[in-house]
Design goal:
Length: about 270
């Protein structure tokens, strides 16, 4: 009997392919003329991974362990990015700031923290309400600390180390990949993901709002010359094909592939561009 739709493993594998195509554009820009189509295809990847992580939060047996893996991934990526930027600079002049682990962690933290606050309120456990509220606010607190240190200046060496420590260890809502846009997208996926109709309507509205707020649509020629994140709309068919079956379990493959393929592509780009 033929399987209807795509299971979790299949949809993540497709997202991985789209992500790799996007990162080829990112890594080799300035070395070769990589077609813009690579970047457009890449807009499909992040929404799929975000959707799948909200499904993970919905069905995982151990949310704390799930979030811990994402946080460790975020920490490793931040350290790896710093090393790669120091020793393998991009020919385009840009720097590696890719860290979808951080974005996914914040989304899961908000889901986890909010639900814990609600359940603690119902149980009248107000000390837990305070604790989980502070935990949920952590990405905002880290952002505020980063701004405070930046405004104070880096007159002392310890301020530089403190700044680097916070940026590396504490995911910030203002300095994470995709920013608040992808985080709001993830929260919407969690709220509406059980119904394909609600999911589709939410995603169409989100893509349309992003388009009208961020894109210069005064002429056809400017549509692809400005922010193309609105083309995340191309991910919708894949989201709707998801059949809620898990499929093969290769979770560590995806955790490992993400940093390794970025650093591999950047290293190759560095030597080819010399």
């Amino acid at each position: 009997m033929l399987q209807k739709g795509l299971n979790g493993f299949q949809i993540k594998l497709l997202a991985l392919i789209f992500m790799t195509i996007d990162h080829i554009h990112f890594a080799f820009q300035g070395v070769y003329e990589v077609p813009l189509a690579f970047n457009i295809i890449g807009r499909i990847a992040a929404p799929i991974f975000i959707f799948m992580v909200t499904e993970g939060m919905r069905y995982t047996r151990n949310r704390e362990k799930y979030m811990l893996r994402l946080w460790i991934g975020s920490l490793i990526m931040n350290i790896g990015n710093a090393i790669m930027n120091a020793y393998f600079p991009l020919k385009s002049g840009g720097i590696i700031i890719n860290n979808i682990f951080s974005t996914l962690f914040i989304i899961c933290l908000f889901i986890y923290g909010f639900e814990k606050v609600v359940s603690s309120l119902k149980a009248k456990q107000y000390y837990k309400v305070l604790g989980f509220s502070l935990l949920t606010l952590l990405p905002f607190i880290s952002s505020a600390l980063i701004f405070a240190i930046t405004n104070t200046g880096f007159d002392h060496l310890y301020m530089i180390y403190l700044f680097k420590f916070i940026m590396t260890a504490f995911p910030s809502i203002l300095f994470t990949e995709g920013g608040y846009v992808l985080i709001l997208l993830g929260l919407g996926f969690y709220l509406f993901g059980r119904s394909k109709i609600k999911l589709g309507v939410f995603y169409l509205i989100s893509s349309a709002v992003y388009f009208f707020l961020s894109v210069d649509y005064s002429s056809v020629s400017t549509l692809l010359a400005s922010d193309i994140q609105w083309l995340m709309i191309l991910a919708l068919p894949f989201l709707l094909l998801y059949n809620r079956e898990k499929g093969r379990s290769m979770k560590y493959f995806f955790y490992l592939y993400y940093p390794l393929h970025i650093y591999g592509l950047v290293t190759l780009s560095y030597f080819l561009g010399r």
